[in-house]
Amino acid sequence: MPQSSINARRLERSLQELGAIGESPLGMQRVAFSPADVAGREYAMSLMRRAGMDTRIDAGGNVIGRKAGSDPRLPAIAMGSHTDTVPSGGKYDGALGVMAAIECVQTLTDSNRELRHPVEVVIFANEEGTRFHRWLIGSRAMAGMLEDDDLNAVDDDGIGLGPCLADIGGDLTRIHEAARKSGELAAYFELHIEQGPTLHQSGTPIGVVTAITGRAVFDVEITGKANHAGTTPMSARNDALVSASRLVLAVQRLAGESEVCRVATTGAIQAHPNAVNVIPGNVRIGIEFRDPEMDALAAAESELRRAAAAVAAEDGVGMEIHRQRFTPPVPVQPKLQAMVEEAARQCGLATEKLPSGAGHDAQAIASIADMAMIFVPSVDGISHAPEEFSTPEDCANGAQVLLNLVLLADERF
Ligand code: HGY
Ligand code: MN
Ligand code: MN
Predict the structure, then answer these.
(1) Prediction pTM value
(2) Of all atoms in ligand 1, which is nearest to the CA of residue 358?
(3) Fold held by 214-327
(4) Best residue among 91, 132, 195, 265 to mutate for probing ligand 1, ranked by most atoms within 8 Å of CB
(5) Theoretical Cys-Cys bridge with 85: which of 16, 30, 283, 359, CB 3.0 to 4.6 Å?
(6) Which of 218, 215, 216, 238 lies closest to 284, judged by CA?
(7) What's domain 8-213+329-412's superfamily in CATH?
């Protein structure tokens, strides 16, 4: 099978052009459903069309570029990722997977190389889940995994998913039409930055993902008693923020010291009324646990409930725990891991196997298609921050391995 070589300069240019859309002094603000998100998707669609793909947006808001193969009876080989970012995020998370997938198709088009399978490039909607505190919306729509509480979700301003999906070309009333069945895709491949330190520390250019982490997200409401900060004696307070802080430390200890699960984070907090001269009467915190094992996530939830009950009893505050989202861990099949290793060998690149501590659209699509993920190093392991960076060489290596993987799949599936 003759090699086709991606164009590294063109890939780097597209990454930087996409990275200029939604860029701010505080990092990338291309948050799902924002005008910047729409602009980023439109830019990517223009590249898809230039690469010879037909483009459409499904009811789940997913952008789908498609290039026919020589045998229309065959299911498509899909590649992709997401172009939405976390607030003040980086230029490579998601973007690399989409730009590299488009670059692969552009390379095939430039060399008049028609595959047997149709090829699709997908930009999944709202992978990060920032606005509705629910992630993987587009990929879970495509996998037919959305639940009623996803469809009925409202954001912090009370705006529903429907109007937001409409803003990006989706349609909540028809969202079930976005679902694809097993067999409709021959495989799904996702190139992504590692977002952790492993590959950068070991100097390995290509990561072969072995599994994608499970994740449990909780919303905890702590109810104390608002009162005057100046006149209320310390012994007479029900300070919801002090109690919330005690729970935050218990969450940190749960993973940090007791190692109940791999990581635990309290990443969101809202204090009410959030005025410096008022003892906070109500606080909401967002907590997430991650681990490649289901039972570790279950153990983390029980430990959270135990710690919350203890703080409530000692401090005399109310504690309400709502389980927001539970995403099971997903393994990558060994035969697909081996294909990634072979694709890397074809371009002389060393590989290292590792699990993904981040969640990805691939873990939703895994329920309807064989999937594999390729990682490239994140410099200093930084991600979800403006300092997120992967070198042009590492990005090009990842794109080349992605193309080799698609060619192997076209030959064998
Ligand atoms: O949060 C994550 O793991 C992913 O970056 N959405
Ligand atoms: Mn991502
Ligand atoms: Mn992310």
Answers:
(1) 0.90
(2) 3
(3) Alpha-Beta Plaits (3.30.70)
(4) 195
(5) 30
(6) 218
(7) Zn peptidases (3.40.630.10)
